[in-house]
Amino acid sequence: MSMVRKSLSSRVENVEEIEDKLSLLDLPELILECILEKLPPSSLCQMAGICHSLRERCVSDYFWERHMKKKWGGVIGQAAYREWKWHVASNMGVGSLKHGKQSGLWMKIFSLLWPFQGMKLKVGDGNDSCNHRSSLPVEAVMNWYLAIETGRFWFPAQVYNRENGHLGFLLSCYDAELSYDSRTNTFLARYPSHGRREARECGIPWERIRAPPVDISPHDLHISNCLNDLHPGNHIEIQWRRKKEFPYGWWYGVVGHLESCNNNENHCRCHNSDSVMIEFNHYTPGSRWRQTSINRKDHREEGNEADGFYGGIRKIESLNEISIWKRMWPSKVLD
User: Fold this and answer.
1) Residue 285 belongs to a domain
2) Element (H, E) at 168
3) Mean per-residue pLDDT for 83-112?
4) What PANTHER family would the database entry show (predicted)?
5) Which of 155, 167, 162, 299 lies closest to 226, judged by CA?
6) What's the rounded Cα separation, in Å, for the pair 124 and 181?
7) What is the domain range of residue 280?
8) CB-based contact 247:326 (threshold 8 Å)
9) Measuring CA to CA, how many Å separate 241 from each of 124, 207, 219, 244?
């Protein structure tokens, strides 16, 4: 019996010794990957500070692309991506972008992240074989995510606006440069100055921000490829600017019936006409801003200095986009 007890005791000690030596890195690669996938960005950053092996995994674009899409996918578009590439190339140097390393960048990123996350990076005592510092590639998705999260990177996007202006009730969307404020979970916007002092707006909530639906400069006319498909009842956005030197904004409207149609649904031939009636139903009936007509066959910028200039049209197919516009309508406006 004593021999059996000694054998069992020896086995238990061996198991405990093995368990003491087990670490996170001893897990199968697939299990470790599943664990890291479930970590939020702040925890991934903390995990990356433990050792070189975990750092190589935690800074992987594979994990950070998922976080980018989840948090920033609705506000980051192609224009923002180009701006980030230009920002990296101009501030870090083309050579740094090419070779993928920048001296001291790793610790700088953590120093920027600590204040708003309350994080502490465990550096080690210098004797740990895992305590190996390496620079983070400047083009890494993690770098981009943290640049936006900390507000260091101003990115181009569009801001929905609803206000009473000198033209009446305005329901529009304009291009701006945005910076994220993690303390309030809102955005700061810088609008083009148009020759005056730069306009700014702070405390903008997420629901008022979107990525530009078309990848063009706000000063360029959008080439409308939907004109032949427009029918009464379709939801659209149309470019509008006050003066020729101003950038375009986007106004929300619907395709209406021509006067000759008399809103006769059974005998409507509006879609066969060369003219398309655009209605802005958030304006009161009788307002000169309530309607405008554009040429379906040969549409270019149309308007004048008194009423402004109407540009390209994009047809809205997404019910979510339509609902966003409708949420901003005045409470008295009925569809």
Assistant:
1) yes
2) strand 168-181
3) 56
4) ESTS AU081301(E20138), F-BOX DOMAIN-CONTAINING PROTEIN
5) 299
6) 32
7) 227-327
8) no
9) 58, 24, 9, 7
Residue 332 in any domain: the answer is no
> Which string of DSSP letters, residue by residue, matches 99-154?
HT--TTHHHHHHHHHHHHHT-------S-STT----PPPTT-HHHHHHHHHTT---
Measured distance CA(311)–CA(246) in Å, rounded = 12
Does 120 have pLDDT greater than 90? no
The answer to whether residue 87 sits within a structural domain is no
Taking 50 as the threshold, does the pLDDT of residue 258 lie above it? Answer: yes
Task: Give how far Cα 273 sits from Cα of 91, 259, 270, 281, 315, Å.
Answer: 54, 12, 5, 22, 18
Lowest mean pLDDT among 75-79, 168-172, 212-216, 313-317: 168-172
What is the rounded average pLDDT for all residues in the chain? 78
Q: Quote the number of domains for the chain.
A: 1
Phi, psi for residue 269 in degrees, rounded to 5? -125, 20
0.70 exceeded by pTM: yes
Helix pair 29-37, 61-72: axis angle to 10 deg: 20
Q: DSSP string of 180-234?
A: EETTTTEEEEEE--TTSSPEEEEEE-GGGEE--SS-S-TTSPP----GGG--TT-
**315 lies in some domain:** yes
Residues 294, 310: contact at Cβ < 8 Å? yes
Q: In angstroms, rounded to a whole number, what is the distance separating the alpha carbons of residues 199 and 204?
A: 14
Q: What is the mean pLDDT of residues 30-54?
A: 86
